């Protein structure tokens, strides 16, 4: 039977406290998602929202490449680690860390780029993507990297729960072509050093029409 997760504040605070306790050297050791550099290479740095930033790997990378970042996460434990890492990286002034529930929080502005990487919100994923898409400014970009829903057996404990995975078709169907120009819509299977099984990713980038 598949274990169900709430993905609320309590869940994520416990998760990051446990990760930091069990693997203190692991936080910040992994590089940013490989799609981030590729998908932002042709974009002019501006304002960006990192939705579900965790310990800040992608937010810090973006700040280091000229973006002014608003990084939001529900877990105070993750944000404390992220802020320390931003200082170590020399970009604390380029990142605003916000502790908030993305299912109810409103930014009060729009961004040149809205991105999310493996976010596990306490709401259905497609509704979450629709919500954050509304924060993209005209002419801006939406970048989604998620766990691809697959029937491939990966072994207990080595794959995301079903409610945290999505299909490419479902994401693209939610982006109306009258509003969005699709730039990237891909599925990937990639190996990660130290991980027994490959990751199955879905990557979508779209530009909001002006």
Automatic annotation (TrEMBL):
CDD domains: AdoMet_MTases. The keyword Transferase applies. InterPro entries: Methyltransf_25, SAM-dependent_MTases_sf. Residues 48-140 form the Methyltransferase domain. GO terms for biological process: methylation. One of its GO terms (molecular function) is methyltransferase activity. This is Methyltransferase domain-containing protein. Pfam families: Methyltransf_25. Gene3D superfamilies: Vaccinia Virus protein VP39. It comes from Micromonospora zamorensis. Keywords: Methyltransferase, Transferase. The keyword Transcription regulation does not apply. The lineage of its organism: Bacteria, Bacillati, Actinomycetota, Actinomycetes, Micromonosporales.
């Amino acid at each position: 039977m598949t274990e169900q997760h709430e993905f609320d504040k309590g869940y994520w605070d416990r998760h990051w406290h446990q990760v930091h306790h069990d693997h203190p050297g692991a936080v910040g050791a992994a590089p940013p998602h490989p799609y981030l550099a590729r998908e932002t290479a042709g974009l002019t740095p501006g304002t960006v929202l990192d939705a579900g930033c965790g310990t800040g790997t992608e937010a810090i990378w973006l700040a280091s490449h000229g973006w002014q970042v608003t990084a939001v996460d529900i877990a105070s434990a993750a944000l404390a680690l992220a802020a320390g890492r931003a200082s170590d990286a020399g970009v604390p002034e380029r990142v605003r860390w916000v502790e908030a529930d993305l299912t109810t929080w409103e930014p009060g502005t729009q961004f040149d780029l809205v991105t999310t990487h493996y976010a596990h919100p306490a709401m259905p994923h497609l509704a979450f993507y629709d919500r954050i898409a509304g924060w993209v400014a005209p002419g801006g970009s939406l970048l989604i990297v998620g766990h691809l829903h697959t029937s491939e057996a990966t072994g207990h404990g080595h794959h995301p729960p079903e409610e945290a995975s999505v299909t490419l078709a479902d994401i693209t169907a939610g982006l109306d072509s009258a509003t969005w120009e699709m730039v990237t819509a891909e599925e990937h299977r990639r190996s990660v050093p130290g991980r027994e099984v490959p990751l199955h990713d879905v990557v979508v980038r779209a530009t909001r029409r002006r």
